[in-house]
Amino acid sequence: MIRRRWAGGAAVGLIALIALASALWSRAGAAPAPSQPREVVAGRQLYLTHCVVCHGDAGRGDGPSAAGFATKPSNLADGRLMNGLPDAFLVNIILRGGPGEGLSPGMPPFAAYFGEAQARDLVAYLRTLADPPFAHEAARPLVVVPGAPRQPIFFSHLIHAGSFQIDCQYCHADARRSEYAGLPSVERCVGCHKIIGVQDNPEIGKIHEFARRGQPIPWVRVFKVPEFTHFPHKPHVRAGLACQTCHGPIERMRVVGAQTGPRLLNDLARLIGMRPASPPLTMGWCVDCHRAENATRGTRAPLDCIACHH
Ligand code: HEC
Ligand code: HEC
Ligand code: HEC
Ligand code: HEC
Ligand code: HEC
Ligand code: HEC
Predict the structure, then answer these.
(1) For residue 196, is it within any domain?
(2) For residue 76, what are the domain limits?
(3) Whose CA is closest to atom 28 on ligand 6?
(4) Is residue 208 in a domain?
(5) Substitution candidate for ligand 2 out of 71, 101, 160 with most atoms within 8 A of CB
(6) Ligand 6, closest atom to CA 282?
(7) Four-point Cα dihedral 155, 156, 159, 161, nearest 10
(8) Domain edge (last residue) among 117, 138, 159
(9) What is the pLDDT of residues 258-277, one digit of tens each?
(10) Is the preceding peptide bond at 132 cis, omega within 30 degrees of 0?
(11) 94: how many CB neighbours lie within 10 A of its CB?
(12) Is 66 in the pocket of ligand 6 (CB under 6 A)?
């Protein structure tokens, strides 16, 4: 009886010892923890092969080749900048290189080495590096609007407003005080891009060409109501309406686009007696919101013709 109990105690002791030893072993970094999902393990392997040289062991942008780049390899472990970037954006950069998203060609394309599935594994691994940690449930998808125009410079709201979180009104400063929201001047771009990206990003180089020639950047207009209509930003912004209410999730668009104006399917639905929501920037859209806001919030949004047509 006594001996058996002692033997049991020894067995428990031995198991504890093995557990401790194996814990120390895995702490030493010999192998990734076996509990990690398959794609993270596969992504880590790809990362060690292709990315460490520039982005460094821990993703901080401090690999052995990093010093040679004018635009430094990104700190892929900086959760503040990385967590807001959608998977599809990261996959695209990995496969097509920096220029696929308007960034520096110092970030090379990897499409010749592996496919989309591997790029997704890499993204799964990059997400584990983030500090503050990446929260899967907070992830939001990239927004691609069909028919978005080609702009004279590949300017990305996803990078400026999404990743770097520059305030909308820092660049569209007139929105709260006048009819037009306004676009930033070349000087405003130069203010930041005197240093950022000038040496090796051709898209940023274009800013300096416009500045040198003293020309405004000829941005293609996206949201536009007809000339005979009057839309003032000021009262809408002051009434507390978020820009996104009317423009959509701009901070998740690599190129701003809009599907506005009358739509045939919408008109056909009305013909058969349905009441679909009016498409943005149609008169029905303005009037529907004015009615709803006045009913629920007691605002005095106008319904008379002359307020919007004069
Ligand atoms: C030859 C050097 C080099 C290699 C190799 C490299 N990168 Fe990069 N990477 C860069 C540079 C430089 C940038 C910064 C581009 C910029 O900010 O304009 C960058 C940026 C990025 C970004 C954009 C992050 C952001 O700031 O939005 C991602 C994602 C990325 N790299 C992932 C990878 C992955 C994954 C690999 C391996 C498959 C890899 N890179 C290999 C140089 C490299
Ligand atoms: C408040 C500072 C700031 C202002 C103002 C600013 N940028 Fe940037 N811009 C950045 C930062 C930061 C990056 C990211 C650099 C990187 O990671 O390589 C960037 C990246 C870019 C890039 C490369 C990525 C992309 O968006 O395609 C372009 C092109 C660019 N900016 C154009 C512009 C233009 C045009 C303007 C003026 C309308 C402008 N920027 C105004 C800070 C600024
Ligand atoms: C760094 C400057 C910068 C920041 C920050 C910025 N924008 Fe822009 N925005 C621009 C530039 C430049 C354009 C013109 C090129 C384009 O359409 O992408 C533009 C275009 C737009 C347009 C389309 C204008 C048109 O032609 O109809 C809208 C809408 C817009 N921005 C809304 C926003 C919102 C909402 C935010 C914040 C989430 C924001 N912007 C943040 C610079 C900026
Ligand atoms: C109630 C809807 C609504 C809200 C809220 C709104 N906009 Fe607009 N925005 C519009 C409409 C409609 C147009 C087209 C106006 C025209 O053609 O004169 C427009 C045009 C624009 C333009 C292009 C030209 C210009 O200078 O006006 C920009 C840039 C813009 N908005 C940015 C913003 C930003 C940034 C915010 C938030 C601060 C915002 N908008 C809030 C409806 C809205
Ligand atoms: C998302 C809701 C919303 C949409 C969409 C919207 N508005 Fe408004 N609008 C308001 C609210 C709320 C007010 C009242 C603000 C107040 O009481 O100060 C207002 C006020 C106005 C005013 C009165 C301004 C003043 O000086 O009193 C005009 C003109 C106007 N809107 C035109 C338009 C036009 C034109 C459109 C469509 C192109 C439009 N609005 C779309 C919510 C909206
Ligand atoms: C809240 C703002 C608003 C009010 C109020 C408003 N409209 Fe409009 N209206 C618009 C906008 C924006 C357009 C342009 C978009 C479109 O064609 O749907 C428009 C377009 C029109 C058009 C041209 C339609 C076409 O197919 O080209 C006519 C005609 C018109 N309005 C008449 C009126 C009359 C009459 C009233 C008063 C009973 C009125 N509107 C009240 C915003 C308004």
Answers:
(1) no
(2) 38-138
(3) 283
(4) no
(5) 160
(6) 18
(7) 100
(8) 138
(9) 987 677 777 788 788 878 88
(10) yes
(11) 26
(12) no
